[in-house]
Amino acid sequence: MPLLEVGSLTIDYPTSRGAIRAVEDISFSLKKGETLGLAGESGSGKSTLGLSIIRLVPYPGVIVKGHIKIDETDILKLPEDEMRFIRGRKAAYIFQDPMTSLNPVKRIGAHFIELIRTHEPNTGKEEAFERTKTVVKNLGILSERINDYPHQFSGGMRQRIMIGLAIALNPDLVIADEPTTALDVIVQAKILDLLESLRKVYGMALILISHDLSIILERCDKIIIMYAGHMLEYATSIEMHRNPKHPYTQGLLQSIPNIELSDQKLVAIPGSPPDMLNPPKGCRFWPRCSYAKKICRVKEPPLIKVGRNHFVRCFLYGKKGVHVERNRKS
Amino acid sequence: MGLRSYIITRILLTIPTLLLLLSMVFLIMRVLPGDPVALHFEKKATPEQMESMRRALGLDKPLWTQYIEYLGGLVDIGYILEHGYPNLGKSMQTFEEVGGQIFSAFPATLELAFYSMIIASVIGILLGVISSKSYNSILDHLIRGVGTVTYAVPIFFLGIVFQLIFGVYLRWLPTGLRINPVVDPPATITGLYTIDSLLQGNLFKFFESLKALLLPSLTLGIILSGMFVRMTRTNMLETLRLDFVTAAKARGLKESTVTYGYALRNAFLPILTMMGLQFAILLGGAILTETTFSWPGLGRYIVDRINFRDYTAIQGAVVVFGLFVTLVSLVVDILYAYLDPRIRL
Ligand SMILES: Nc1ncnc2c1ncn2[C@@H]1O[C@H](COP(=O)(O)OP(=O)(O)O)[C@@H](O)[C@H]1O
Ligand SMILES: [Mg+2]
Question: Domain range for residue B152?
C-alpha cells in the first residue's frame, strides 16, 4: 500500500489572459520511507505539484482533475478542518526561502510549542517546551536560543529551524521545495545532510524538489523530470543516471559538471522553456529538441514504459517500449 | 540607537515642532480679518473705550513683543507649579485664564477621542480582515463600498441622523452633553467621566456617562473607520501572501491563528502608525462632533472663541492639540518598538 498516490493530476491557474496549465496529467506513487526527486527548470510546475499534496495550491490555482491519496484517503475530498490535521502531522512542507518562512514577531520556541499543542491538544506547556528543546538540539542549535526571534538567526539556521518544524510531529512525508536554493553553497550540503539524517532516523518519505538535477541524483531513490507541467521521464536514480531516455533528461545530465570526467564537455540545452499561456502543440519540448520529428509537433507523446520502473514521454521510444497510458504502479 | 535615546530625541524634536505650530497660529490669527477688541463690545464702542481695552489686552504693543511675552508665559515654571498648567494668557473675551478653561474642557475631548478611536479601530480592523479574507467576493466589495461611503459622509450629517433615530424617534440615547443634566457629574480625578465614576465605584454614573458618549463617539468612530478598513485590507492582503503565512497553514495551524496571530499581528504594525497619524484627524473631527452634540470639549471651545477672534484662547487650544498629537505619536512609536522585535534594541 503506497503512502502517497497521485493520479492524473491536472492543475490550472486561471488568469485574465487565459488559463495556465501548470501541472498536467501527472501520476506517481511513493512508499513509506522512500525518497522522490522532482527536477525541472523554474516554472515547470514543481512547487504547484508539491503544494497540491498538502492542498495549498496558491490562489487562483485549481485542481481540475485527478486524485491525491495519502494512506488511501483522497485528500481532495476532505473537508478543510480534516485537511488541517494532514498538514504538519502527516505531510510537512519546507519552503524555499527560510528568511521569510518564520513569523517575524514570534519567538522560535513559540513556533514549535504552538505546532505541538495545535496537533496534540493534550500536551502541557511544559512538555511541549521540553520537546522543543530536544528537537532544536537535534538540529545543531543551542537550546537556549529558542527564546530568540527569527531575525537573530542566519539563513542556514532558519532553514534548520524550518526542517525542525517539519519533522517535529514525525510526519510520514516531508516535501522539501528547493530547501537550499536561497542559501550559500557552503551551507547547502550541510542542510541537505541534516535533512537526510533526520529523515533516516524518523523513517519518513521525502519529496525533494530542485531545479538542480545533481542534488536529486545524489539523494533520491527515484526521480520525476518535469517540463512545462508535464512529466517527461520517471525512473529510479540509478536508471536515470546510467540510462537517461528523454532528450531533455540527457541534456540536463550533460549540463551537470562531473569531477570524475576531466575531458567533459558541458552543454547547455539551447532555447528556453515555453510561454505557459501558449505552450507548443504536441510535445512541450519539441522546439528545443534536436530529435524532433513531425509527429512531435502535432501529437502529445504518451507515457511509455521503457524498463522496470522507467517511463518516458517521448515518441523516440514508441516501438521499443511498452505503451501504457498511465503508470499506476511503480 | 537605543530605545531610550530615541525617545529622548523624539521629545526634544517636539519643541521646534510646537514652536512652529504656535508661530503659525499666532500669525494666522492676526492676519485673519476681525478685531477682538471690536468684537468684545456688544454695541458700538467709543474710540477711547476701544483704546483702553486694546491696552488692557496688550494688543497696543508691537507684534514681536506680544510674541515674546506669550512664549515667556508658556515656560514660566513658577506659574505651572502654582496652577498645574502653563500660563496661556488671559482670554480676550472673558479675561479668565485660558489655561484653566482648556484644562477643564480638554478631558471631554480626550474621552470622546478615546472611545471614537476604539470604535473606529475595532470596526475598521474587523471589517478590513473580513474583507481581505474574502478577497474579490461580493462581501469584499460591499465592505469596501461601505468604507468609502463612511469616509465621505459629513460628520454633522451622520450625527444628526443618529440623533433623530436614537434620540428623537426611539428615545434610547441622549443627543448631547456629557451626562444627563439631572445627574451630578462624578468628582474630578482624571476628568474622564467614565473613568472617574469607575474609580469611585459608581456604576450608575458610569453607565449614564457611557450612554451620553455613545452617539458622538459612534458618529466619529464610524466616519474614521473607513480609513481603517482600507488600510487593514491592503496590509492584510499583502501579509496574507507572505511565505510565513503559507508556512503556518502548511503546519496545519488553526485558521484563526493564521489570520490573527500571523497575518494581522504583522499587518497591524503599519496600521498602528496610521492610528497615531489619525489622531490629528480625529481631533479635527472632534471639533465638528462636539458642535453637533453640544459636547463641552476643546473643539467647541475653539469654535466658540474663533467668532470673537479670541487670540489667546485659540493659541492655547491649538498648542494643547499639538502637544497631544505629538504625545500620541510618541506613544505609538514606543508601542511599535515594543510590538516589533526587530526594532527592540
Ligand atoms: N499564483 C499564480 N498565478 C498564476 N500563475 C502561476 C501562479 N503560480 C504559479 N503560476 C504558474 O504556474 C507555473 C508553474 O509554477 P511553479 O509551480 O511555481 O513552478 P516551479 O516551482 O517549478 O518553479 C508557472 O508557469 C507559473 O507562471
Ligand atoms: Mg518553485
Answer: 99-339
